[in-house]
Amino acid sequence: MPLVRFPAPAEPLWHEWDRKAQKSGLRHTVYAVNGDQYTGEWQDNLKHGKGTQLWKRTGAIYKGDWKFGKRDGYGSYSVPDPVTKEYKKVYTGWWKNDKKWGYGTTFYPGGEYYEGEWSGGQRSGWGRMYYGDGSIYEGQWLQDRPCGQGMLRLPNENRYEGGWKEGKKHGPGKFFYLDTGQLFEGVWAADIPKYGTMIDFGRDEAPTPTQYPIPKV
């Protein structure tokens, strides 16, 4: 009796339906149960490529790159102003694994902002911080605080150059009192000068020089 060959069974329809349900490549808009909305590219059912995420509860918006469901690449994060409802940028720059990572700029309330390097969502590396009182810190950061070598320039142009640790002056450094024409060079510990020397420095050009010059040793 000849061997009868039956045709291979057809692929179950649910396989085809599952493939069609997989969002990949094309742009799609998807609404979450909590009202959040994403419009952009997908891969294997994950946000991947260019896309825009809107969080309904806060009204915040992220526009930029995604990688397997997380913000990764270049993008900007904005929130609505509570009064005007206009969008204000909070961060523009590079992301990795859903956190600020690389070079970027963050805008804080009161007009303060930071531009520089980030790691794991914290200021780390080189950066410049503009404070609300007019002070500017430029230098190294670690875990969101000045750490390493840096310069702090005050609104009256006086400045400190030297070591920092955990956000405070620490180690060898120089403080230039340009308003009085003096320079203190010494060693700090947790923002307190421990020892050093004070000399006249540009006293003739200082706007409010001391009454008498410092005697030479």
UniProtKB/TrEMBL annotation:
Where in or outside the cell is it found?
Cytoplasmic vesicle, Secretory vesicle, Acrosome
- What Pfam family is a match for this entry? MORN
Keywords from the UniProt entry: Cytoplasmic vesicle, Repeat
Q: Which organism is it from?
A: Nothocercus nigrocapillus
The primary gene name is: Morn3
Primary place of residence? Answer: cytoplasm
Q: Can you say what this protein is called?
A: MORN repeat-containing protein 3
Among PANTHER family, the record links this protein to: MORN REPEAT-CONTAINING PROTEIN 3
Tell me the lineage of the source organism: Eukaryota, Metazoa, Chordata, Craniata, Vertebrata
Q: Which InterPro entries does UniProt cross-reference here?
A: MORN, MORN3
Summarize the protein's role: Assembles a suppression complex (suppresome) by tethering SIRT1 and MDM2 to regulate composite modifications of p53/TP53. Confers both deacetylation-mediated functional inactivation, by SIRT1, and ubiquitination-dependent degradation, by MDM2, of p53/TP53, promoting a proliferative and cell survival behaviors. May play a role in the regulation of spermatogenesis.
Q: What GO terms fall under cellular component here?
A: acrosomal vesicle
